[in-house]
Amino acid sequence: MSEDPVVIHTDGGCRPNPGPGGWGAVLRHREHVREMFGGEAGATSNNRMELTAPIMALEALTRPVAVHLYTDSTYVRNGITKWVFGWERNGWLTAAKQPVKNEDLWRRLQIACARHRVEWFWVKGHSGIADNELADQLATRGLNEALSVGATSAP
């Protein structure tokens, strides 16, 4: 596994929440840059889009690598670095014995992380960090494209 990390910035969101959503990711390794985005025209949530972004970015990596993953979502960072272990141990129930929301995406994120050596970092959103701002723009693009496709394919 390369010690030269792939640096990933991710973001996701909805308008309104819940509602249509989009996600974006910026992947950098040396001089290579890849921008990714997508969205859902139907009802989704900010948290689902925030989770989808790192899943899609990690799944796009073609071989195991070291990753520095930056998110402005404490939900995602705390979930994957702390809470998921207890949820899994408790049969995907919260401490209050309720089903874990977005279990499907948490499981998928665990699998995506298992291929790589991922270090998670939280960054304040909309604070001028270039790749975080770009990930936000890509998420908006994903939302807008999902809505335009949904509008053109509606019966």
Quickly give the CATH architecture of one domain.
2-Layer Sandwich
Overall pLDDT score? 94
Q: In angstroms, what separates the terminal alpha carbons?
A: 49 Å
**What is the helix fraction of residues, given as a range?**
40-55%
The total count of helices amounts to 4
Pairing-aware structural class of the strands and helices?
Answer: alpha/beta
DSSP strand count: 5
Query: Biggest β-sheet, characterized?
Result: 5 strands, mixed
CATH uppermost class of one domain: Alpha Beta
Order of helices and strands: EEEHEHHEH
- Would you give the CATH topology of one domain? Nucleotidyltransferase, domain 5
Order of adjacent strands in the largest pleated sheet:
3-2-1-4-5
The CATH H-level superfamily of one domain is Ribonuclease H-like superfamily/Ribonuclease H
Detail the poorly predicted runs. none
**Roughly what fraction of the amino acids lie in strands?**
25-35%
Instruction: Work out the radius of gyration.
Output: 16 Å
Molecular shape: globular
Write a structural description.
It is a single chain. With 155 residues, this protein is of the alpha/beta class. The chain is 43% helix and 32% strand. It contains four helices and five strands. Strands 3-2-1-4-5 form a five-stranded mixed β-sheet. The longest helix has 24 residues, at 130-153. The chain is globular and about 45 Å long. The mean pLDDT is 94.
